[in-house]
UniProtKB/TrEMBL annotation:
Protein name (Swiss-Prot/TrEMBL): Uncharacterized protein
Amino acid sequence: MLTRAQLVGARLVEAIEAAAERAGRESADLFAGKPKQAAKYATLARMVHQKGERHRLQVDSLHRIARAAGLALDDIYDADELAEARAHEAERVSIRIRAYDIVADLPKSDSTT
């Protein structure tokens, strides 16, 4: 499901790869000392390589990844698109699968007959 708080992740991946190339380093090296954000970037890059422009991510998650790499979203995304995503940043779509556990509590006498 898409929300207006999501942006295309491919632009950030391209910007991080370009920044790493300018620095003469690997993309993962930009996240030195930030293992959580490095893992999030690795997942983002993998999904972008699988889905391309179809892969979207919440603007707050993109912001954290960009900041960890030393980049600003303002330099990567269109100002209007970014403003709209930030305006709807608190919106979330629940994709969880809800289930119910049913337990039968039978007396011992009923289970032995």
